[in-house]
């Protein structure tokens, strides 16, 4: 049963009052020791978005992705079950499949070891003469996978809480969008010369939109939600979809949306690296893949209700959404790379936060609460 009511307010503040609360020290975004600690204590222990089940709709369909834990292969097995494996051969660790496509089996391009779609080793040329070799012991290494409403999440930690527990009351607020009935129609990948945390912080405040996005979405106003679980939420208020720019024709509102969902677009962060955004007619996401302390890969995708795709003019009407998502993302990339450069200055210092930075503070508090105190004391003292 939920213990946190959804009572949106202009902001939800935790910690020192606005003006006294400070941004994180620059080394939080520039020190390799922090990045390595985050990898060990956060990224390899928490759930992250890897794709959608409609991207691998049939047995044999696959998709490869890069993650902070290495290359990963998503595949639909012979029984139709979505699976995730380390995209690494058990012989001498070559990667196996690239991009996305369809395969009846998984064949290593190096020494032709082959695997069934459920990960079991099928063939290992030359190993018949190896004493005590047992094929059953050398299947692909599985990665924990759970699906929420069509979204695939992975976790390297087999002892972590299940995904639904992790999401808390997020499905209650967003359920009326029926994400499981949507279909992915667009995506891009953008490499950013900035720390991964900056990407998520930027995605959860409207303070910057009037300046950074003056030529696209312009100034926005938002309210914040208290949440239960490992996620955060704001809502950008608008009586029409903000997934298109200006007076561009939008798709109709999704039938059955809750009263609150009809008031604007929800922007969420599922800690630590996933943003889902839900407008009245669609949803899109930012999946951040940390590459180095000052480098990240941003995967952006968008989805619409399945029946929208049957409209005779769907492609024409959808094109402005794709343009908006890409244009706004590239504007953000530009300012984030400037921010990363500034944080690298020997004279950079923490700055005061205002009430519009409430989720920046929340994101920082979540990260810091999961890092060892000795690392924080040494690097952020």
From TrEMBL:
Q: Which CDD domains match?
A: Rieske_RO_Alpha_N (cd03469)
Q: Which residues form the Rieske domain?
A: 47-154
InterPro entries assigned: Rieske_2Fe-2S, Rieske_2Fe-2S_sf, Ring_hydroxy_dOase_asu_C_dom, Rng_hydr_dOase-A
Q: Does the keyword Oxidoreductase apply?
A: yes
Q: Can you name one GO molecular function term for this protein?
A: 2 iron, 2 sulfur cluster binding
Cofactors needed by this protein, per the record, are: Fe cation
Pfam families in the cross-refs: Rieske, Ring_hydroxyl_A
- Could you list this entry's UniProt keywords, alphabetically sorted: 2Fe-2S, Dioxygenase, Iron, Iron-sulfur, Metal-binding, Oxidoreductase
Kindly provide the name given to this protein in its UniProt entry. Aromatic ring-hydroxylating dioxygenase subunit alpha
């Amino acid at each position: 049963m939920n213990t946190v009511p959804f009572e949106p307010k202009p902001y939800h503040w935790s910690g020192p009052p606005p003006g006294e609360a400070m941004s994180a020290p620059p080394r939080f975004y520039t020190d390799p020791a922090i990045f390595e600690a985050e990898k060990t204590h956060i990224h390899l222990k928490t759930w992250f978005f890897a794709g959608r089940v409609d991207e691998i709709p049939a047995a044999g369909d696959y998709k490869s992705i890069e993650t902070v834990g290495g290359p990963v292969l998503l595949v639909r097995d012979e029984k139709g079950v979505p699976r995730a494996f380390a995209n690494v051969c058990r012989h001498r660790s070559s990667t196996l499949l690239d991009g996305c496509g369809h395969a009846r089996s998984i064949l290593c391009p190096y020494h032709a070891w082959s695997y069934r779609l459920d990960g079991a080793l099928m063939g290992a040329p030359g190993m018949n003469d190896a004493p005590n070799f047992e094929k059953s012991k050398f299947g692909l290494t599985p990665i924990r996978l759970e699906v929420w409403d069509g979204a695939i999440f992975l976790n390297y930690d087999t002892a972590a809480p299940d995904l639904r527990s992790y999401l808390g009351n997020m499905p209650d607020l967003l359920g009326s969008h029926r994400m499981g009935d949507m279909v992915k129609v667009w995506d891009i990948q953008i490499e950013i010369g900035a720390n991964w945390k900056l990407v998520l912080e930027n995605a959860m405040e409207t303070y910057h939109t009037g300046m950074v996005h003056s030529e696209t979405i312009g100034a926005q106003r938002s309210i914040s939600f208290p949440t239960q679980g490992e996620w955060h939420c704001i809502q950008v208020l608008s009586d029409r979809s903000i997934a298109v720019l200006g007076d561009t024709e939008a798709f109709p509102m999704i039938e059955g949306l809750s009263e609150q969902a009809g008031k604007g677009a929800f922007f969420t962060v599922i800690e630590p690296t996933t943003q889902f955004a839900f407008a009245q007619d669609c949803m899109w996401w930012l999946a951040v893949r940390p590459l180095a302390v000052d480098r990240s890969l941003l995967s952006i995708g968008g989805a619409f209700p399945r029946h929208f795709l049957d409209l005779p003019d769907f492609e024409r009407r959808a094109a402005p959404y794709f343009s908006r998502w890409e244009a706004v993302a590239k504007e953000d990339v530009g300012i984030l790379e400037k921010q990363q450069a500034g944080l690298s200055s020997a004279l950079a210092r923490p700055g005061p936060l205002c009430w519009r930075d409430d989720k920046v503070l929340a994101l920082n508090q979540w990260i810091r609460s999961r890092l060892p105190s000795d690392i924080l004391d040494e690097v952020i003292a």
